[in-house]
UniProtKB/TrEMBL annotation:
InterPro entries: SCP2_sterol-bd_dom, SCP2_sterol-bd_dom_sf. Gene3D superfamilies: SCP2 sterol-binding domain. Residues 60-148 form the SCP2 domain. It comes from Streptomyces macrosporus. This is SCP2 sterol-binding domain-containing protein.
């Protein structure tokens, strides 16, 4: 089953998939299926597109004067780090870790990350069940979802 899903996803142009469609795709997959297909080039493409969309789905009116660096550590086949900077009413994303100190760091596996950003998981439940690990400003982390338009599947 995972190979046919992987083949189907590998053929997708993720830039052309709406956030709502992406949420439906993630909702239809089990954690095991996501973990099985999030390997190699497909993983890099999916994570890259999710983080690119953060800039477009940012809600500056909700962030107000927030100034924060958020580090995302996605574990799986290998650890991948992205950083989101919210400052001056804008959101910028970069792949990789800088020397700057983040206000908060979120660490989670591939499946949990995709479920979170697609609106298919509750961040509080993920934290309580230790699927989401936080370091730094927990208050900032707990409010992150309000700064982005998160689709509903």
């Amino acid at each position: 089953m995972a190979n046919s899903v992987r083949d189907e996803l590998a053929g997708l142009d993720f830039a052309a998939v709406s956030p709502e469609e992406f949420a439906r795709i993630v909702k239809g997959l089990s954690t095991r299926e996501i973990d099985e297909i999030m390997r190699g080039e497909l993983r890099r493409r999916v994570l890259g597109e999710v983080f690119r969309r953060m800039e477009r789905q940012f809600r500056p009116e909700s962030a107000g004067s927030l100034d924060a660096l958020i580090r995302w550590k996605i574990t799986g086949e290998s650890d991948v780090v992205y950083e989101t900077t919210i400052a001056g009413g804008t959101c910028t994303v970069r792949e990789g870790r800088t020397d700057a100190a983040p206000r908060t760091t979120l660490t989670m596996g591939d499946a949990d990350f995709l479920k979170l950003v697609s609106g298919n998981a509750n961040p509080v439940t993920m934290f309580i069940t230790r699927k989401l690990k936080l370091a730094g400003d927990i208050g900032l982390a707990s409010g992150l979802t309000r700064y982005f338009d998160i689709p509903k599947a």
